[in-house]
Write a structure and sequence with these properties.
Septum_form; elongated; 16 strands; Septum formation-related domain-containing protein; five-stranded antiparallel β-sheet; signal; 2 domains; single chain; 359 residues
Amino acid sequence: MSKTSPWRSSFAVRLFLVAALAAAAFLGAYGFWSPSTGTTAGETSTDETGPTSEMEVASFTSAESGTCLTWDIDAKGEISNFQSISCAEPHRFEVAAREDLSTYPTSEFGPDAKRPDVTRQNALRDELCASSTLGYLHGKWDPAGKYDIASVLPPSNAWDKGDRTLLCGLQTTDETGVPQLSTGNVEAVDQAVVAKAGECRSIDDKQIMRTVDCAQPHQLETVSVVNLGERFPDGYPAGEELDTYLNETCTAAAEKYLGGEENLYQSTLQPFWGSVSEASWNGGSRSVNCSLMHPNNGSFSIITGSATGGRAALTIDGAPPAQQPERNPIRNNASAAPSAAPSAAPGAAAPTPAVAPAQ
């Protein structure tokens, strides 16, 4: 699988990390030392070297299609407690298929073969996992969503003993590529990539979006998550209908987030929303973010501070928010953008990167 969107971190890095993490987790959970033999538990103290016979090879995991895997990661990045678990519980990897590389058409993965490097792992993922994983999901997968197709190989000690198991499956990662906990089977959950309310998002010069502390420079402050499937249960909505709904919904969410329409007006920020393409909708994504932004010549202004702290907490492009003109009190809940904002509807004037799924 190839991910071309710059809003997604490198999938190759993710694949390497999940394989490395799973290997380390297995070693951490089972690779304790036996003081009586000086060997790893499960090994023998024989002087013989080389892989065991095919009859004696045991897989590093019994996980089958539909099983989920999880492991613990502490504050130092140490990993332990690698185990199979129900997908209804928080987990880090959902197994879609189980492959045996010893049956590979060539002798590439024979008894004396070295464990594949990251480049070869990527190729194996594309060759062996893409089709089987899509079949497992019955085609319901959003390549632009939060779940990636990945593979897991045995840890080095298991590989050296002859284990040629390869697990194909799905994972979601953070911005550094570390597999994150998720709950439920991928086919049955919302696959959209969304930020949480209160999180601020920075867009770098490569159009990569990251979550940052709101005290740091950013372009978007998330005010809510909207599940479009609840409003449009019968299928993908038409563009105008969707924009009208999100205009009203995100303006109301922004006012609630800031404590009222007057606070939104005084902040000089505009409501803004993401989008879901029809392809993503069909693949299983339903949610978008409502956010706050400030336009700057067709792009985003750089904001520091959270809008929840009021005007005094904000700088916009290095300066305090512009002084808003006095006006008569608003006596209704009109969904239009604040009068001092650009004439375009909220979100319409923002640049293309912002309507990409938040990550």
